Amino acid sequence: MTVLADLNANALGAFAIIVAVTLGVTYWASKFTRTATQFWAAGRGISAPQNGLAISGDLVSAAGFLGVTGLMYLAGFDGWVIATAAIPPILLILLLFGERMRNTGKFTVADVLSFRMRDRPARGAAAVATLFIAVIYLIAQLVGAGVLLQALAGTSFTLSTVITGVFMLIYVIFGGMLATTWVQIIKFSLLLTAGIVLTLGVFAKVGFNPVELFNRTAESHPGGTDVLGPGLSGLSPLSTISTALAFAIGTAALPHILIRFFTVPDADAARRSVGWAVGLLGSFWILSSFMGYGSWLLLGGERADAVGPGGNLAAPLLAEELGGGPGTVGGDLFLAFISAVAFATILAVVAGLVISASGAAAHDLWTNILRREQDVERQERQEPIVARIAAGGIGLVAIVLAVLAGAGFNVAFLVGLALSTAAASNFPALLLSLFWPRFNTTGAVTGITVGLVSSIVFITMSPPVWPGPDSEGSPVPLSNPTVITVPLGFLACWIGTVVSRGRAGERSFSELLFRAETGFGAERGGVATH
Amino acid sequence: VAGLREHHVAEAIDWDVAVQDPVFKQLVSSRQRFVLSASLGAFGWLVLWLILIAYAPDFMGSSIYQGFTLAYAMGLSQYLLVWVLSWWYLRKSKREWGPLRQRVIERMQLDGGDTR
To answer: Any bridge partners for residue B68, and if so which?
Structure first.
């Protein structure tokens, strides 16, 4: 990617403000982060609108925000498809998972998935899937962070990646979920503000008339009116569908999103928080379509080199243009603001990923599988210690791997792998455990395993990886294999269940159903500790 | 302490009997009917949009009104549908299922369980 400046003082200054505010929040949050419930679930004291903002934030990574504008700059309408495909899954989360998660689990997706299963095998499989998804996604985000900060602020790739990783660990280790949530809230508020400001800027240039925006974009674009419809990205039809479905189904089962439902006081708040997320996030992605067309209209083909081959700098450059253009005070300020929003976005998303991984490692693997600790009070005391160690370990491994991977590494396939695994491994097992009475432990374990393994195998054999980037000879033609792996995951869940028929050591579906539907016995949140 | 007490209460409940409660059954069937049709509806609408985009790009690229394309209009309808269904679900949860839930819990307590 192009580097905008050797060292951008304005961007660095804006980063410093973000860092100062988030560290302040972390210091405040650290006072309320002692027990396990406080560490992973923010004391169950997050309100519905706050959680809605945080969920929205979790669903927009820097790659999402900059990527959608960038893809629309490059290919017009096609760039907007993935953003829109991520909206219906939020409804699925609301209808299928949100309040049921809150009613049947404590801290992790594995809590819910293993609720009525034999605890160790089902929890173990679910925890491994969560860890895998979180770590893969984390490496992708950290590499992306390094590349992006290098371009925006001029700091080296390695330094950018390490700085991002260090702050991520500070938020999580000292401030737990409370700090992570508030960093996410701050980030999404900034992001939405940026979206509104840029959209207003774009509209001001076309007399606040959307039709004018469409037509002038089409006039100036080499694709003509084709830019306003699908097809310019040149993906095969099946790849288009598979990639969008990976985003759609994967989004509905991402562990770092689902654990947000443990942070609210009760199922009612869980439900309302998704209502907020649907409204906020939907608005943002609709605004992104205007930013996308606007970026081409205002930057035009002549700035293509600066925007870069992936289009990632389209949004920052659009901001610079709207502020008055390169070299002007307004342009510099707008550019610095968008850079800071991107930086906050990166920090918030990676912190959420580390929290979810620490839950799988400390609550699932350590407490419930290795130690089989039954005493609730001892769990509350010990788990945060193990969680902090796990977070530190996972974070360091991810930072090292990201630095080793380097700036040129193709992270798109890592994101694809994380989403495909969430879609093929988490989604079928979680759905069936909540809705299919006959589903059992063997079915859950085979389903999760097949979903995970098939995602890895198919991604490895797909064009981005096998036998080299952009090759023609790969055995699987899809860059994103969800259309195959999700049915495989469901099939494996079903086969495992009917083959084994074993129900020994399991709780009844009736108990799960009753608790999930009524919230009976669910741990209620304390009244605002913060 | 709360955890232990809840554990004892839970042990004492026959869940297979609890789920046969008529009010509970009414709650579950009403909710699941909505959840199933809304999920399939929203997801189906998304898949239809994706299939049309992938296989009929020219048709989807046709302009409805001065550059406002069919693909874009159908994209916006995804948001609208999700908003309407979410609003409807939240409304039904509050007005219809909330009171039913309350009644189920009250009936449980009459049967001798301390629900907390």
So the answer is: B65
Query: Which residues 50-89 of chain A have a CB within 8 Å of chain B?
Result: 77, 80-81, 84-85, 87-88
B79·A237 Cβ contact <8 A:
no
- In this structure, what token pair is assigned to residue B109? 């307590």
Report the C-alpha gap between A261 and A527 in whole angstroms: 16
* DSSP code at position A209: -
CB A187 within 8 A of CB A348: yes
B-chain CB neighbours of A245 within 8 Å are: 47, 50
Cβ contacts from A onto B, under 8 A? 157
How far does CA B46 lie from the centroid of its chain? 17
CB A87 within 8 A of CB A278: yes
Structural contact between residues A29 and A177, judged by C-beta atoms closer than 8 angstroms: no
A295 close to A73: Cβ distance less than 8 angstroms: yes
In sequence order, what are the residues at sequence separation of 6 or more whose Cβ sits closer than 8 angstroms to the Cβ of residue A409? A143
Give me the mean pLDDT over the A255-266 stretch. 94
Helix count and strand count (H, E) for chain A = 23, 0
* pLDDT beyond 80 at A477: no
DSSP A193-206: HHHHHHHHHHHHHT
Whole-model pTM: value is 0.92
Handedness of CA A234, B53, B34, B18 (dihedral sign): negative
Q: What is the mean pLDDT of chain B?
A: 86
Q: How far apart are CA A168 and CA A256, in angstroms?
A: 14
Q: Which pLDDT score is estimated for A529? A: 46
Q: What DSSP assignment string belongs to A284-311?
A: HHHHHHHHHHHHHHHHTGGGHHHH-TT-
Question: How much of chain A is helix, strand and coil, in % rounded to 5?
Answer: 75, 0, 25
Q: What does R_g of chain A's alpha carbons equal in angstroms?
A: 22
Judge contact between A102 and A264, C-beta under 8 A: yes
Confidence of residue A311 (pLDDT cuts 50, 70, 90): confident
pLDDT digits 0-9 by tens, A74-90: 999 999 998 999 999 99
Question: In b/e form, how buried is each residue of B95-106, taking b as 16+ CB within 10 angstroms?
Answer: eebeebbeebbe
* H-run or E-run covering A246: helix A237-252
Cβ–Cβ < 8 Å for A428, A443: no
Cross-strand partners of B69: B63
Complex prediction ipTM: 0.91
Taking the C-alpha atoms of residue A152 and residue A367, their distance in angstroms, rounded to an integer, is 42
Distance (Å, whole) CA B1 – CA A200: 55
Cβ of A228 within 8 Å of Cβ of B55? The answer is: no
Residue A424 structure tokens: 């093929």
E strands of A74-141, at which residues? none
